[in-house]
Design goal:
Structural class: alpha/beta
Length: 194
């Protein structure tokens, strides 16, 4: 399989990033469905020790995140040919560099929101293992996409449909065709734009 469709455009290999509560999983799944590519949720890649720390309100450190990021990087590499979307906080440039080491052409969609908007969203998702008390540590860790990083920044304070529509338009998928069509692999990655 090739990383391009029959029309020559590259398949989508995308990380939907942002702090906890930004809607990465919901938006990532919606974008993947729109593009017709597989979806992965980075929460599923955490080892039990990480989940236990976060559930206890203890922020993860870089050592905790390395095996998690490596597993996500391997998922991206395995989906390079047919495309895929995965949700992952990817808060630091160093974390995104680790993902790019596995999948150099990966692009990012940063779901951006104020502390107030994210706190409101977190309050509506009881039972998630990331407690709202860790929100400040997430914002403290966040390093926004740099001008040299391929990706888009999208405001989360809108509906999921509106976010997906903005992604589709800004990434050049405004023709409305799904990324996977009969007899071809999935499609396009967003242009660099932060």
């Amino acid at each position: 399989m090739s990383s391009t469709r029959t029309d020559g455009r590259p398949t989508a290999l995308l990380v939907v990033m942002g702090v906890s509560g930004s809607g990465k999983s919901t938006v990532g799944a919606a974008i993947a469905q729109r593009l017709g590519v597989p979806f992965g949720d980075a929460d599923d890649f955490h080892p039990p020790a990480n989940i236990a720390k976060m559930t206890a309100g203890v922020p993860l450190d870089d050592d905790d995140r390395i095996p998690w990021l490596e597993a996500i990087g391997r998922w991206l590499d395995e989906h390079d040919d047919r495309g895929g979307v995965i949700s992952c906080s990817a808060l630091k440039v160093a974390y995104r560099d680790r993902l790019r080491a596995h999948a150099p052409r990966v692009t990012f969609v940063h779901l951006h929101g104020t502390r107030e908007v994210i706190a409101r969203r977190q309050a509506s998702r009881p039972g998630h293992f990331m407690p709202a008390s860790l929100l400040d540590s997430q914002f403290d860790t966040l390093e926004p996409l740099g001008p040299d990083e391929a990706g888009l920044v999208i405001d989360v304070d809108q509906s999921v449909d509106a976010i997906v529509h903005e992604y589709v338009v800004r990434s050049g998928r405004a023709d409305g065709t799904p990324d996977s069509t009969s007899g071809s692999t999935p499609d396009s990655t967003p242009d660099s734009q932060a």
